[in-house]
Amino acid sequence: MGSDDNRHMTTPYSLDGAAPLAHWGVIRAQGADAAAFLHGQLTNDFALLDTSHARLAGYCSAKGRLLASFIGWKRSEDEVLLVCSADLLAPTLKRLSMFVLRAKCKLSDTSAQWRLLGLAGPSATALLSQAAPAAVWSKTEHEGADVIRLPDAAGTTRYLWAAPIEAAPPALPALDADAWRWGEVASGVVTIEAATVDQFVPQMLNYELLGGVDFKKGCYPGQEVVARSQYRGTIKRRTFLFESDGAAVAGQDVFHSADPGQPAGKVANAVPRPSGTEGSGLLAEIKLAAMNEGTLHLGSADGPLLRQIEMPYQVAVEAVN
């Protein structure tokens, strides 16, 4: 599994146009303490968040394991929106609400009130024109919509477009939902889904490499575990990009050819190739020791082979013993 085996991510879909993000939901935090409350619960800094940027952030258990991941942004001084996987929004909202206590903050599921689209490619950048955010995680407004620059996917520019449900969608070519999700995988940014809740410490998903963890902020649930993993050099698992001819699903175990008795990792996100072709693109969290030699497989040591793809950002693999 050395770097000489790495390939670039193929793009079997056309990543140009707009896709509805039905797999994402929206939590609204409103009130004078909205940002301060989220600052005390999530892995990133929301106290210093302005209205021109967004944050990647995780929500951890007391053991430092991710219960949800968010893209969050401030719409005003007393309103923050959090986008997360729709299949875990309800339990996440319930758990977060337990800790509001006396804070001036109301949390609610406002998914039905928002139209979320993923925009990608040259046509999206041309339509946004001067309003296209230049830097990753920066935010602008375009005809009443909030537009957030997301990490690129296979060299393609991507944006999150969020507007009130009554707003007309931008006039862009229709982008297949699986094409957008292929781009999510190719970007190297894992979204926690229901199948992967409470499985990963943020660094296992490379969140600190993506700006999703602030080590200078104050306490939040699981903060001691996350900090200890960072500063004691105990990060021995990381997330990597793969392709496979097998059908991968989030939460599926990955096995190493030399150790069939126990999993070497777990699929974090996966997306099928286009209809008519077999296989998947996937992000999988893997023991670093399993990345040196041998082969990785889906489901069992003799399952479909994983072919490592070059990540769009640098991942250190120093802790391999």
Q: What is the overall number of helices? A: 5
Q: What's the architecture of the largest domain, going by CATH?
A: 2-Layer Sandwich
Estimated share of beta-strand residues:
25-35%
Domain unit count: 2
> What is the CATH topology classification name of the largest domain?
Gyrase A, domain 2
Strand neighbour order, sheet with most strands: 15-12-13-14-11-16
Q: Class by helix and strand content? A: alpha+beta
Please give the largest β-sheet.
6 strands, antiparallel
- Regions with little confidence, pLDDT below 50 for 5+ residues: none
Helix content: 10-25%
Rg is 19 Å
Separation of the first and last Cα atoms = 15 Å
Mean pLDDT: 93
Task: Please tell me what the overall shape is.
Answer: globular
N to C succession of SSEs: EEHEEEHEEHEEEHHEEEEEE
CATH superfamily grouping of the largest domain: Probable tRNA modification gtpase trme, domain 1
Total E-strand runs: 16
CATH class of the largest domain: Alpha Beta
Kindly list the characteristics that best describe this protein:
13% helix, 321 residues, Elongation Factor Tu (Ef-tu), domain 3, Gyrase A, domain 2, alpha+beta, 16 strands, five-stranded antiparallel sheet
Quick recap:
This protein is an alpha+beta fold and 321 residues long. Helix content is 13%, strand content 32%.
Task: Give a written overview of the molecule.
- A hairpin with a 2-residue loop joins strand 9 (145-153) and strand 10.
- The chain is globular, with a radius of gyration of 19 Å.
- The strands form three sheets. Strands 15-12-13-14-11-16 form a six-stranded antiparallel sheet.
- The chain starts with 16 loop residues before the first strand and ends in a 12-residue tail after the last strand.
- Helices cover 13% and strands 32% of the residues.
- The mean pLDDT is 93.
- It has two domains: 3-10 and 195-309, Elongation Factor Tu (Ef-tu), domain 3 (Beta Barrel), CATH 2.40.30; 17-186, Gyrase A, domain 2.
- It is an alpha+beta fold.
- It has helices at residues 34-39, 89-97, 121-128, 177-186, 223-231, and strands spanning 17-20, 24-30, 54-60, 66-76, 79-85, 106-109, 114-120, 139-142, 145-153, 156-164, 237-244, 253-256, 265-272, 280-287, 296-298, 306-309.
